[in-house]
Amino acid sequence: MLDFDNEFNQPEKILVILSARLNQFYSFYYELPLALENYQISVLCQKRAADSIPEASINKFITKDAEISLDNLEPEIKGNLLKAEYGSLVILYNNREGSGYDQVDKLAGTLKAGNKYVYDIDGRLFKFDDDFLHRKNVIRPAQHREDVRKAQKTASELIKKITSSISSQQTKPEKPRIIFLTAQGFDLPAARVRCFFLAEELAKLGWQTETISLVTHLGFPEEWDQNLSEKMTANSRLVDILSTKSNYILYLQRLDYHAWVVKELFEKRGLPFIFDYDDWDLDFLPLPEIFKPHFPDGESLLKFFIQNSLLNVVSSKYLENHFRKTVDETLYLPTGVATSNFNAHSPTTAGDTIKISWLGTVMRLSNLNDLIFSLNAFQKISVQYPQTVLEILASGRYLKRARSFARDNQQIKFRGWTAPGEVAGYLGTIDIGLLPLIENNPFNRSKSPTKLFEYMCLGKAVLASAVGEANYIIEDGVNGFLFQDEGEFIDKLKILIEDNGLRKKMGLNARATIIDKYTLAKQAKKLSDKLESRLG
Q1: Is a pLDDT exceeding 60 seen at residue 21?
Q2: Is the N end or the C end of the chain the one with fewer CB atoms within 10 Å?
């Protein structure tokens, strides 16, 4: 049974077609929103009736004049009605023989609805079916004044019948809860986007979801600050928590040390799990002391999870191809961006300071090399373009080492760490986003770069290495620039600095690309559809 009190469920849509005089159902419309407060109610009615329907809880579709039919609707309203899918459709008749009923029936048969019901003002219920469309004079006429009296008197009873009928149709097999597991905290992009935000988007599609972060929820440090004892304790806490839950699927994000819990639960209880892999970590196993006695190398560990998962989800084409060596089917799900958090901002106008941004963490030596590349290349053109500034929005263990490469250049600014909720506001002030991935290795080819999606979603021109995923996202010269080496990086950066119009055009194209293909809502829909098919 679906839980309509669950904050994650979207309201059930109900459409009421009012083929009756409004005063016959006047009190009905005041009681209906209260009785169905967890539903989204819309009414299709004649123009003359619209003003008398309460505004607060009911959305109104209004015909151009008296007749309720497809032909008597404004094109926009007609389009909205035909596109929408309703859980229930309720037709209210007024016990009167007359013309126009065939049109109402025709309209009702055209709309998408899970269940359709027909009521007269006495509260009698007729289940809408194919035969109903062919029956004439289903309800005998009565005196108008008597009709009104009966309608007002039986409004509450009628509402009870509607809610009972609708609720009885909602019984479906309960979907298992999806519990997202991450060893990382909310501040890190993989956990934030592929767990916290993706869980929220799935919940909008009717799934019950939950996220458990060993850092954010259980208070453990990030992995690189933990010793073996702390990792063992974290796994033990995780087992205690999961043992209290039932009817769930684990969503394992990455092969961090918490993956051992998933392996043990799968083998002991046959618990299904989804394996989400967005990074190449086979060269440094999260917990070699535990994994190595069972798996001689990273590849064998990876294959265990690939072969035993309910569904494999990967963030890049490189990982998709790698997974397909082991299993035939893998869901390609780029990290994407939550567009509600990243609205478009206009770049600064020509003549103002032009901000170039490098955004990310400097936790690996490869990250440090990427940042040093950007610093060195910018040094070579900064004197030529005094109106430019390179801002580094970063944190990580190697950041201090990177500062020495700035060589006291006043056009280079290190802004330090910024809270995730403030990143969009900051990126709205920049003009050019950089994504240099200097080493063409499995790690860089596997990345689904969050920063690239965020730059583009905010309508910013981007300059990225032609390595890995950027090749599939950026069309060179259209929605961004790709580069192969430092010479090409400098040449294309100069073009972007000098051509304000091109920056704006690229930014618009970049945002259009994100909206078309890479919103997190669209990624969640792909995942939801795939899970539906796998679960039957």
Answers
A1: no
A2: C
